Amino acid sequence: MDLKELLSYREKCLIHGKKLNAYSFRSYQIDYQIDLFDTDFLMALKSPDSGIYIHMMCSTCVKQNFHTDQSLGHTTLLDIRVLQYYYTFWYYPSTQDGHLGIEKIKYPHDEKFYHIDANLVTGKAYCKMGSFKAGTTVDDMLGSFLNLELPQLDMKKINNTSDLMNKMKLYNLFS
Question: What is the DSSP letter of 19?
Answer without folding.
Answer: B
